[in-house]
Amino acid sequence: MKFGVLQFPGSCDEADAQLAAGRVGEAVLLWHRDRDLAGCDAIIVPGGFSYGDYLRAGAIARFSPMMEEVIAFARDGGLVLGICNGFQVLCEAGLLPGALLQNTNRRFTSRQVHLEVVSPDTPFTRACAPGELLSVPAKHGSGRYYAPDDQLDAMEAAGQIVVRYAPGECFNGSARDIAGVCNEAGNVFGLMPHPEHAVDALTGSTDGLRIFESMALAAGGAHV
Amino acid sequence: MAGTLGSGVLMRVRVLVRPKAGILDPQGVAVEQALPALGFSGVTDVRIGRLIELEVDDASQVEEMCRKLLANPLVEDYEVQLLGEASGTAA
Asked: Which GO terms describe its biological process (chain B) (predicted)?
């Protein structure tokens, strides 16, 4: 299992993403100006402030040469995980529905949250039990998930709401407490909290590993 | 250098980007709550958007620029204003 972790000017979580993915497989960094996915089985778009978050978070990163390759990879069914700014990039790229808006509390907020696994059947959550709570950090200023109500209804019916903030823990005003969603095909997943920062007991939780273990399981088995 | 599709005359264009109606604008709320503290009463519905000005040699492309990059049509409305010829022309 080989993971490719994208690196933009302004990325800041690519090292942790590489370390986390390295616990379950091989992980290499992919520079935003290159176009070679280096034979990776899965792509991680990491957190940070790609291209300075100019205009809107993720808006300019979405047009980088490497993202063009990732979009084609995702359209072919390849596994793509977007974390925080990576989630914003995937929404801007149209690979995931919805948009991330400024937190209702108007603050950059950093805290440990519990994520409820709503859909344990995706390639990103299959190592989790239904309803399992994952303790992972969240740290962002623009993580308020938004999609029109009718679209949210359709996404819920289709199992595309993958993780929610546990009751009372949604600090950013996200619609229906949504923390992470997948596309219709299930091969692209984005979430605001950071599983890659929760892979070592030293920092308080290893629950984030479940996401990477799930991806390794998915890549090892039949193609999704 | 003017693009091949352009007229060679640069147009000054202004794009106004606003949060869509019904979408909470936390910045607008903050400003609305700050104004009474300065003695300005009776202010409601403050909305904060973005103003983008650009010079283009083919103004017909601006609409597509808005859809693809300058605005996110899911959460923002945009308005294109043609301001007339730019002070300089395309070299």
From this structure: purine nucleotide biosynthetic process
